[in-house]
Write a structure and sequence with these properties.
alpha/beta; Glutamine Phosphoribosylpyrophosphate, subunit 1, domain 1; Rossmann fold; eight-stranded antiparallel β-sheet; 20 helices; 27 strands
Length: 607
């Protein structure tokens, strides 16, 4: 999704902007541009396609002099990914240049109004309306023009603004789209994502909705939407530059798969204290939990599948009904949510527009919200009543891996915590489950180590169409495995609850059809085995996934991927890893752009 960077200081701005944009590449984009200002005014350079083209066009920034500028990577929404539609956009008088993340919902009405005022549009974007509004409202006071413009906008926006009349000041404003200010020494920055700032500074200010910032080389001032000066807290980023780099791996996705043991350890260890689970700085009392009539989990994509898997753990250990809802559906439904509902909102980025909207909808119905979020200071983390950070570190690849397994780790921890508080998990069972959970990082490492044969299996099973099947928590793994395969290898993959095959899907099984059968739920293994037998009888080629030592599976499947033993309720966190690797190697074999799959964005900040 779109990315924003801004710089003001004494150095040449363009190389810094280009470097920042490269840090944001992982978010997904289809065009890029920069605007840099010097004594001759504002100069804009933009291209469709990759940042490498922009670097070439600007001689790595050397051709665009000036020490103040803004940059953007665009993921097309309004208008095709062309040079003209790329940001920055200039006002007709050339005085303002802007970059924008988000969507202006009332842009058509604004566009008509501005055209009748005589403004000429170059692009098809919603963004261009903003720059013409700035020109319209400007009477010598830039901050006032920004405030008046912001007041006309409906929708979401993070804006970076240059004005030729303020040669040493960058302006920024946000509403429902992230923007972070970076504090340097004699220079300052902004970016839509902290990963573009960590190479320069660890000291940041998170801009809130409705706030406007003015940055010069030596100062940062933040105002509310009425123009009142605000005192903003400075936060310290703990991510290192190395954490956002590939570290010798061919792709971020592979690096992040390999980081899962450490990431899950980072998620679990600080919350486990001598046989006790502690939920950071909040506690859910037994009384509070007894008043909870149901738990709603809402999220999108893989985070939703983490929720599907978490549901089994919570229902099993807490005996509380759990409803898992796609955020994009919940936000427009009639959610059966009230003050007795506990809502778990899951999001790696914490910025997913649908998930934020679902959170707000549940809040409006009186529910208590717990965010399960990776990115510190993100919108969901701030909106939730309580936040459980997943501590996975920066996840750069568009396809989530460590983000997903750390979400599962937190859901398991939560289930065990609540189950124990409510007395629904007995002490002996609790101790055994806790022991098993503590071993999860070690078991993840074993899972990675024992699956050296996956590149070869990917070669054998990757085909134009694949089926993933499983029951119960294995079904959640099948859903995530199929999504991984689709999003990075562009192969068609369907996931089915194994028992559903005979209700229609089995008609698609023909000679040689690959079926990936997840079979790690020991109680249901015989049931899934019957489904394996059924598809094999119709010619399918079956790759099964099971606990080490499962002899029955070996006798029925064509190939088996093993994972180490763990309590079944936690097995999804291990079982998903071979499927991540299978998708990775299938995509690599096809030569796909693994870290930046086509049409996808890391953080889906628009609806
Ligand atoms: C996962 O590989 C996907 N890229 C996608 O489904 C993702 O999980 C979804 O967009 C939700 O993102 P979030 O966790 O940042 O909210």
């Amino acid at each position: 999704m779109c990315g924003i960077v801004g710089f003001v200081g004494k150095q040449s701005a363009a190389p810094i902007l280009l470097k920042g944009l490269k840090q944001l590449e992982y978010r997904g984009y289809d065009s890029a541009g920069i605007a840099v200002m010097d004594a001759d005014g504002i100069r804009v350079e933009k291209v469709s396609g990759r940042i490498a083209r922009l670097c070439e066009k600007t001689e790595n920034g050397a051709a665009v002099p000036g020490s103040i500028g803004i940059g953007h990577t665009r993921w097309a929404t309004h208008g095709a990914p062309t040079d003209v539609n790329a940001h920055p956009h200039l006002s007709n008088d050339g005085r303002f240049a802007i970059v924008h993340n988000g969507i202006i919902e009332n842009y058509l009405a604004l566009r008509e109004e501005l055209i009748s005022d005589g403004y000429v549009f170059q692009s098809e974007t919603d963004t261009e309306t903003i720059v013409h509004l700035l020109e319209k409202y400007y009477d010598g006071d830039i901050k006032a023009a920004v405030m008046k413009t912001a007041a006309r906008l409906e929708g979401s926006y993070a804006l970076g603004i240059l004005c030729a009349d303020a040669p040493d000041t960058l302006y920024a404003v946000r509403e429902a789209s992230p923007l972070i200010l970076g504090i340097g020494v004699g220079e300052n920055y902004f970016a839509s994502d902290v990963t573009a700032l960590v190479a320069h500074t660890k000291n940041v200010i998170y801009l809130e909705d409705g706030e406007i910032a003015a940055l010069t080389p030596g100062s940062i001032e933040v105002y509310d939407c009425t123009g009142q000066r605000l005192q903003k807290p400075i936060s310290r980023v703990t991510w290192s530059v190395e954490a956002a780099e590939k570290g010798g791996y061919e792709h971020f996705m592979l690096k992040e798969i390999m980081e899962q043991p450490a990431a899950v350890k980072a998620a679990l260890a600080p919350r486990l204290h001598e046989g006790e689970i502690r939920l950071d700085d909040f506690e859910l009392s037994e009384e509070t939990l007894r008043s909870v009539s149901k738990i709603v989990i809402t999220a999108c994509g893989s985070a939703y599948y983490a929720g599907c898997s978490g549901r089994y753990a919570i229902e099993k250990l807490c005996h509380i009904p759990v409803q898992v809802e796609l955020a994009s559906e919940l936000r427009y439904g009639e959610p059966m949510v009230d003050e007795h509902t506990l809502v778990l909102v899951i999001s790696q980025s914490g910025e997913t527009a649908d998930t934020i909207a679902a959170l707000k909808e549940c809040r409006a119905h009186g529910a208590t919200i717990i965010g399960i979020v990776n990115v510190v200071g993100s919108t969901i983390a701030k909106l939730a009543d309580h936040t459980l950070y997943t501590w996975a570190g920066p996840e750069i690849a568009v396809a989530t891996t460590k983000g997903f397994t750390t979400q599962l780790a937190i859901l398991y921890l939560f289930a065990l915590y609540v189950g124990k508080k409510l007395g629904r998990v007995e002490q002996a069972q609790y101790a055994a489950l806790l022991r098993s959970l503590k071993l999860l990082p070690k078991r993840l490492q074993e899972t990675i180590d024992m699956n050296y044969q996956i590149p070869a299996l990917a070669g054998r099973y990757a085909s134009q169409s694949l089926f993933f099947i499983g029951r119960n928590t294995d079904y959640a793994v099948a859903l995530e495995g199929a999504l991984k395969m689709k999003e990075i290898s562009y192969l068609h993959a369907e996931s089915y609850a194994a028992g559903e095959l005979k209700h229609g899907t089995i008609a698609l099984i023909d000679e040689g059809q690959p079926v990936i059968a997840v079979c790690c739920n020991e109680a249901l293994c015989d049931k899934t085995l019957s489904n394996i037998v059924e598809v094999k009888a119709r010619g399918a080629k079956v790759l099964a996934l099971a606990f080490r030592g499962n002899k029955k599976i070996v006798s029925q499947a064509d190939d088996v991927i093993f994972i180490p033993q763990i309590e079944t309720v936690f097995s999804a966190a291990l079982a998903v890893v071979p499927l991540q690797l299978l998708a990775y190697y299938a995509a690599r074999e096809k030569g796909c752009d693994i870290d930046k799959p086509k049409n996808l964005a890391k953080s889906v900040t628009v609806e």
